[in-house]
Amino acid sequence: MTQETQRTTLPIVEMAKENDEFRQVIWTGKQAQLVMMAIPEGGEIGGEVHEGHDQLLYFVEGQGEATIGEVKADVQAGDVSIVPSGTFHNFRNTGSSMLKLFTTYSPPEHEPGTEHVTKSEADAE
């Protein structure tokens, strides 16, 4: 689904469960952005810091470990991780299936329409 559909209500949990791409930007506004992610078994998002961007991550399937600042916590379906602007964070898949989630950035972090099938594709860009 692309932003061109201009839908304002989405079945995002089902969409995230069906997603197998590392990153897919679903919608971008002036102040926020909605992105789906799928992290393969043993994979990770990769440690990073977003200056000027708050991020919320909503987990819908799988198991993982969240590192936010100095705090590590297990995550699973139904959990939300909060990453304030300027805070180091990483998310690792510790389960035996894909770790699937959707995330919001405020303000937007990625170009509208961005799609990365794999993490190595995202890193190359």
From TrEMBL:
Pfam families membership: Cupin_2
Residue ranges of domain Cupin type-2 in the record: 36-104
Superkingdom in the source lineage: Bacteria
PANTHER family membership: LIGAND BINDING DOMAIN PROTEIN, PUTATIVE (AFU_ORTHOLOGUE AFUA_6G14370)-RELATED, QUERCETIN 2,3-DIOXYGENASE-RELATED
CDD domains named among the record's database cross-references: cupin_Bh2720-like (cd02223)
UniProt xrefs under InterPro entries: Cupin_2, Flavonoid_dioxygenase-like, RmlC-like_jellyroll, RmlC_Cupin_sf
Designated name of the protein: Cupin domain-containing protein
Organism lineage string: Bacteria, Pseudomonadati, Pseudomonadota, Gammaproteobacteria, Oceanospirillales
Species of origin: Halomonas tibetensis
Biased composition (Basic and acidic residues): 108-125
Ranges for region Disordered: 105-125
